[in-house]
Amino acid sequence: MKIELLRLKERIEIASEMGESHFREFKSGFEGPDADKKPRAVKDICQNISKTLVAFANADGGELIVGAEDDGEITGLEYKEDLLKVIIEAPKTYVHSTTPLPATKSQIVDYEGKKVAYFSVPKGTEHVYITSDGKCLKRKDLESIPVSPESIQVERSEKKSREYDRSFVDGADITDLDKDLLSFAAKEFSKTISEEKFLQHLDLAEFDGDKLRLRMASLLLFAKLPHKWHPRLQVRILKVKGTEVKSGKDFNVISDNEISDNILQLVDGSWDSLRPHLTETKFSTDALFKAQVVYPELACREALINAIAHRDYSIEGRGIEIYVFDDRLEIKSPGTLLSSVSVSDLENRSGIHQSRNTYVARVLKEVGYMRELGEGFRRIYDLMESNDLRKPTLYSGEKSFVVTLSQKLVYTKEEKFWLENFENLTLSRDEKTIIRLGAKGELISPKLIWDSVGIVDTDVYRQLIESLRQKGVLISEVSKPQALKIAQKEKIRDKKSIPRFKIIKPELSVAKNKINKETKKISGRKLDTSSYSKLFIENIPFDCTDEQIEEVFGKYGEIDSIHIPKNYNTGSGRGFAYVEFENEESSKNALDDKFNLFMGKRKVIVKPFKPRRASR
What we know:
By secondary structure, the chain is of the alpha+beta class.
């Protein structure tokens, strides 16, 4: 089998496409105003190189491209050969001689007629790396920040668990990986990259002159037979009747589900198994059984992915265990917190990022399973708080780390007093969360509702808004067109962040409804009861983007959502999509103009979307 090698020119092209990240940085070769750009002093560039590479080596490794702007545009380096040589030698001459960087790659690359300096360095373990002038830095998100050498030295003591996912595995090759899953991940990363180059780009594999040598991370993530490489690559979910696990005749575990698979499949499989446990069905006052969310889904998903991404895989005798008690959810993962991270750091939401499994975490971030590194626990705490739930409790010890999410609600005295005004209404927890946001009489934005409730589905948002409208306690003070004008005037990109809604007490809503009815009789003006309308569009390019669809259809009215179904095997589109307008008039305008809709030279076919009815 012929292996496709990833060339440096391709690395630069992919890096330019992906942009800066925790693992990637760009440095310009120019300075000054746009109209009068001049080459920077070579000494300044060399100092930038040493600081960035030292920070990468002291963190999780990374790559640096000198000759690129912050937005990824390749502008090149305009220096003679002798100065280019000085730049390429910077990782040696501008790094302290007692802490040489590990396995650094340095090369001048001719990229489309422009000279670019490419550098990469892996995570170091032998030294605490410092620059030639004694600066110790470490990469955190998009910055290289000063740190104490002592904090890095403590990390080195955890070498075994930190190096587990980066070790090369003898006897493994690319045929041991799930090709379809690997292809899907590669296309999520970059539409133009092959599977072999994807593995090389993310340092999951290395070409030794004969074949690709796989790191353990690639097998943990993509293995066809995960148990062959790790005996406990699994999540076990136990539903317990009561608040503690009992044994013998009192044994009270009512379900025990074990999911075993490679990490990418494990994330989805374990989430599908856990999700039904996040709601409970109760008999409501209107004689119906209704499902009510007891834990915010996003918080639980963050906690699950955090456990999978950061557990200690060098502990091979245990997997992740999730206990669903009557009053709480416990997620227990093998391995304590890293010594450089404390429970108080996480409780204080300081955004600490320390990844035990550098390569695993990077892939999960790059292909979209995780968002910004170091933000997971902050998001969990914020979601629990915004849902009026007690703060998570964390425990690190006895070779385990445990995250506990409680069902218990927490309100301030003022909020309790405010909610008493609505106690005669049948309100779900999510509705109470929204009503709580209006306690001070301030207008509420759609974005605040999404973030506070932890909404992941547009339909859920609409149902909540309509339910509160029908109950007469939520009104629109600012219409959607008005919000759009405000966003355009103030140059706010996210129109959903414009405050629009107001919460009113039930007795006020009765009076308000009477006024609205009278106003409607007099003026004939319709109330703000927006109806959403969805279109089905066909014959679009397979590489079509949301932006391209919005460019074509946005002229007919405000678009609420665009959905382009993806092909699992290729990651590309399937040639059709759904466009949802915020009112029927916009949808009708698009249908009336359907013979004039093109994307490039391709005629777009537009039809009303009609959901299938369930068979009786």
